[in-house]
Each structure stands twice: as structure tokens, then as C-alpha cells.
Design a protein that fits this description.
With 433 residues, the chain is of the alpha/beta class. The chain folds into 3 domains: 1-128, HUPs (Rossmann fold), CATH 3.40.50.620; 130-168 and 202-269, Serine Threonine Protein Phosphatase 5, Tetratricopeptide repeat (Alpha Horseshoe), CATH 1.25.40.80; 274-432, DNA Cyclobutane Dipyrimidine Photolyase, subunit A, domain 3 (Orthogonal Bundle). Helices cover 47% and strands 7% of the residues. The protein has 20 helices and 5 strands. It has helices spanning 17-24, 37-40, 49-66, 79-89, 103-118, 148-158, 161-164, 206-209, 212-215, 228-233, 238-247, 251-269, 291-299, 305-317, 322-335, 340-350, 356-367, 382-389, 394-399, 416-432, and strands at 2-7, 29-36, 73-77, 92-98, 123-126. Helix 12 (251-269) crosses helix 17. The protein binds flavin-adenine dinucleotide. Residues 216, 224-228, 231, 256-257, 259-260, 263, 322, 325-326, 329, 347, 351, 353-355, 358-359, 362-363, 366 line the site of flavin-adenine dinucleotide. One of its GO terms (molecular function) is deoxyribodipyrimidine photo-lyase activity.
């Protein structure tokens, strides 16, 4: 008999809650990863950087596993079918995984539970992806917080670093990995993908923590950590990262990690907000959804240099600075009056650190439809944002070098003042109705 540990968004062998518990039980543990075709088949880009990122992480784990005379069992297909096959192949006692809170993951798990249930195999999940999950930080009456500041206060009051940030010493039980070294990791090509040429983000963050509160708002400075993708895929442990922020007493950076928990909690309690506005009357808005303008926004050709710089940074690197995510998102929803969901989907396609909870949260925040959003009447002025956050135009020059050349650079596709009036009028109408 064996136990199986199913890797999903936790692609690491150190400080991994579920993996630790799986190994600790004593039965041989098969480390499993499934390339889920329900997800892969929907990706439009065959050189998707996230697939390369995952493949790279799997190769690293495989390498580490050789130390324990083991290797990853990697499958490709629809998880419910793969599990059907696995139950025939092995005498499985228990399946262990870390909880994934996204709506699709929950749906997938329900299907897999059914398959396993038929074979009387339990599926046990552990918290690993966040510091506090689900109902762990809620209001005194048990209801979820929908506003960040009181949530953060409660989050901080609940945190006991020795308890909540303690690492799970996986290697202590590493002898229990299933001894099998001949499983092969399929190549990217074998799963229908190509290697992305984007640079994958590194794992270091300590050097930015200290100055973060001073530098984080300036897009031309390398003042943020860029570890989003590592938190997304679990190649870094959120406990370790949070502990480092805690010990460095870098409140501003810790605050951002709390936002991450907050949005994960919101999506778990309100999964419908992945596609519907948190504020109900926001769905009355008559979006213009002008296709050519959307195209111009995607390509970084709106004639607003700060917006265009952000979109080009995203297109060329798979990452965009947070301040500019806010500016570009606000510009799409407010200046162009294009449905925030179009923008959310575009970011989802391009961001290496794409995470549904934070992306939807960020978009609803910028559009003004979110639970704790910018007031609808606040319309970011890209010109003023540039003067404050890119005063020497270093960032703009880096991404839009032709911005001052009228022969090469387009005129603004909308006039700021007119766009502002238009959106305020429409939002007011929608909210009155
Ligand atoms: P740092 O500033 O170094 O922060 C460290 C970590 O904290 C980040 O990696 C991230 O995990 C977390 N974090 C930071 N800011 C936020 C935030 N506002 N909300 C939630 N978590 C945060 N973040 C994503 O991880 N995935 C997304 O798909 C995503 N989409 C966004 C879309 C919009 C419109 C906006 C306004 C923000 C979005 N964010 C998203 C939040 C934020 O912009 C990114 O987390 C951050 O820019 C990533 O860069 P970094 O890793 O250098 O972060």
C-alpha cells in the first residue's frame, strides 16, 4: 500500500504542510503532479511562461528527489480520469494535498473525491498556501471581513509567529518517499508546449524588504520583490516569506502579504466575484466595450505614455509594477469604459504571477466595483501619476522611447477630462438604478 501526495500550487519539498503530514504517516509516499488538460487546453499561447515555470519547478524537485531515491510521478490528462487510472495502478490508502481555494480547484477536487470515494480512498487537504484561510480571520459575529483595514488588524492580532509561521520539516521523514527513480518528466514539447523566452523571476527578496516602503511606488526602480509567481506556484513558502517580513519588521511589505491572504479569503467566501462585481449595482454599468480601443490598450498604444509603458512591460516581460497595474486597470475601466473583466482576462493571460484572487481583487479595486475599492468618483489621472511616480520619465523612456515623437507615437485616444466626465455620468446613472 502507498499514500499519494498530489502537488498543485505547492511545488517545493521544503516547508510543505501537506507533504510533511503525508510522509510522517509512514507509508511510502508517491509524489504526484498532474498536467491538468482542463487548464492547459484553454491556454492560448503555446509558449506560456507559467507552463515553463511549472516545468522548471518540477525538474528541480525531481532532481532533489533523487537524493531520496525517488522521483516525481507526472501524469497528463483530466485529473478525474488520471485518478481513475491511478486507483487501478496502485493500492492507495490515502491521498494528501494542500488546499487550493480557487473556484475551479474546488470543482476539480469534488470530481476527484467522487472517483476516490468509489474506491474508499480519503482525500485529506492541509492549509499551506496562505497564513490564514477561510474562516480563520473573521469578524466577531463570524461573518467574513469585506474591508481590508479591520481584517488586517484582526489578522495581526491572530498571528502567533511561533505557531503560524513555523516551518514543516519535510526532510525529517524523507526516507518515506516511494523508492522509484525511473519515472520520466515529460518534456514541454510532449505536453504540447514550447519553452518561453521570458526571463523567469528569481527567488530573492531580502534585499528589497528594507527599502520597500521608500521605493515600492516608483516603477523605474527595482524596489519590489517580484516573488509573486513563486508564491503563486508555491516554489517559495508563504510562511517563510512572512516570517522574514515579520523579523525584519518591514510593516509595509508585510501589509502586502496580508492583502494576498485577504483576497484569497474574499474569493473563497464570494467565489461569484471572480466574474461578477462585488457591488451589485455595478453590473448595471453600460460598458462601451470598444474593441479597437481595447486593442490599443493591450498593445500599449493609447497615447498615454504611463499606461502604454505598463502594458508594454507586461507584454514584454510577463510582469507589471503594482502602481502601473492600478493605473492601467483604472484607465481601461474608467477612461475607456471597458468592462473590467476584459482587462482581468488580459492580465490573466499575460502575468507570470497571475493569481485569480489577487487579480480579480486588484481589478475590482481599480474599477471601483470591489468590496474595498477606490471610490468610483476617483479617476486616476495618468499625467499626474506620471509626475508623482515617474518624475524623470525613466520608466516611460525605458518602455516607450518614442513617446515624444508625434510621427511615431499616437495621440491620446481619449481626452482625460471628457473621459472623466463620461465615466462619472455613467457610474452615477448605474448606481441610481
Ligand atoms: P511585492 O510588492 O514585492 O509584494 C510581495 C508579494 O505580496 C507579492 O508577490 C504578492 O504575492 C503580494 N502582494 C503585493 N501586493 C499585493 C496586492 N495588492 N494584492 C495581493 N497581493 C499582493 N498580484 C498577484 O500576485 N497576482 C495577480 O494576478 C495580480 N493582479 C493584479 C491586478 C491589478 C489590477 C492590481 C492593481 C494588482 C494586482 N496584483 C496581483 C497585486 C500586485 O500588483 C502584485 O502582487 C505585485 O505587483 C507583484 O509584484 P512583486 O512580486 O514585486 O510584489
Amino acid at each position: 500500500p502507498v499514500n499519494i501526495f498530489w502537488f498543485r500550487r505547492d511545488l517545493r519539498l521544503t516547508d510543505n504542510a501537506g507533504l510533511y503530514h503525508a510522509l510522517k504517516q509512514g507509508l511510502p509516499v508517491i509524489p504526484l503532479f498532474i498536467f491538468d488538460t482542463h487548464i492547459l487546453d484553454k491556454l492560448p499561447d503555446k509558449n506560456d511562461a507559467r507552463v515553463t515555470f511549472i516545468h522548471h519547478a518540477l525538474a528541480e524537485m525531481n532532481e532533489e528527489l533523487t537524493r531520496f531515491s525517488s522521483s516525481l510521478c507526472v501524469k497528463y490528462g483530466k485529473p478525474e480520469e488520471v485518478w481513475q487510472e491511478l486507483t487501478a495502478e496502485f493500492d492507495i490508502r490515502e491521498v494528501i494535498a494542500n488546499t487550493d481555494y480557487e473556484p475551479y480547484a474546488t470543482e476539480r477536487e469534488d470530481k476527484v473525491r467522487k472517483v476516490l470515494g468509489k474506491n474508499k480512498i480519503p482525500l485529506t487537504t492541509y492549509k499551506d498556501q496562505v497564513i490564514f484561510e477561510k474562516d480563520e480571520v473573521v469578524k466577531d459575529d463570524g461573518k467574513p471581513y469585506t474591508v481590508f483595514t479591520p481584517y488586517k488588524r484582526k489578522w495581526l492580532a491572530t498571528l502567533n509567529p511561533e505557531l503560524h509561521l513555523k516551518a514543516y520539516p519535510v526532510t525529517k521523514y524523507a526516507k518515506n518517499f516511494y523508492a522509484h527513480t525511473s519515472w520520466e518528466l515529460p518534456s514541454l514539447k510532449q505536453i504540447g508546449f514550447e519553452k518561453s523566452d521570458l526571463e523567469l523571476p528569481g527567488k530573492t527578496y531580502r534585499d528589497v524588504i528594507e527599502d520597500y516602503h521608500r521605493t515600492r511606488d516608483f516603477p523605474s526602480v527595482e524596489g519590489t520583490s517580484r516573488i509573486g509567481a513563486h508564491l503563486r506556484f508555491g516554489t517559495l513558502s508563504i510562511r517563510k516569506v512572512t516570517l522574514d517580513a515579520w523579523e525584519a519588521r518591514e510593516k509595509t511589505w508585510l501589509n502586502e502579504l496580508v492583502w494576498r491572504d485577504f483576497y484569497a479569503m474574499i474569493l473563497w467566501h464570494f467565489p461569484e466575484t471572480a466574474t461578477a462585481a462585488f457591488r451589485k449595482n455595478f453590473d448595471n454599468i453600460r460598458w462601451r466595450n470598444h474593441e479597437a480601443e481595447f486593442e490599443a490598450w493591450c498593445e500599449g498604444k493609447t497615447g498615454y505614455p504611463l499606461v502604454d509603458a505598463g502594458m508594454r512591460q507586461l507584454n514584454e516581460t510577463g510582469w507589471m509594477h503594482n502602481r502601473i497595474r492600478m493605473v492601467t486597470a483604472s484607465f481601461l475601466a474608467k477612461h475607456l469604459l471597458i468592462d473590467w473583466r476584459w482587462g482581468e482576462a488580459y492580465f490573466a493571460r499575460r502575468l507570470i504571477d497571475y493569481d485569480m484572487a489577487s487579480n480579480v481583487g486588484g481589478w475590482q479595486w481599480a474599477a471601483g466595483s470591489g468590496n474595498d475599492a477606490v471610490p468610483y468618483f476617483r479617476v486616476f489621472n495618468p499625467q499626474l501619476q506620471q509626475e508623482r511616480f515617474d518624475p524623470e520619465m525613466k520608466y516611460i523612456r525605458r518602455w516607450v522611447p518614442e513617446f515624444h515623437d508625434p510621427f511615431k507615437y499616437p495621440k491620446p485616444i481619449v481626452d482625460h477630462r471628457e473621459a472623466r466626465e463620461r465615466v462619472l455620468k455613467e457610474f452615477k446613472r448605474a448606481f441610481a438604478g
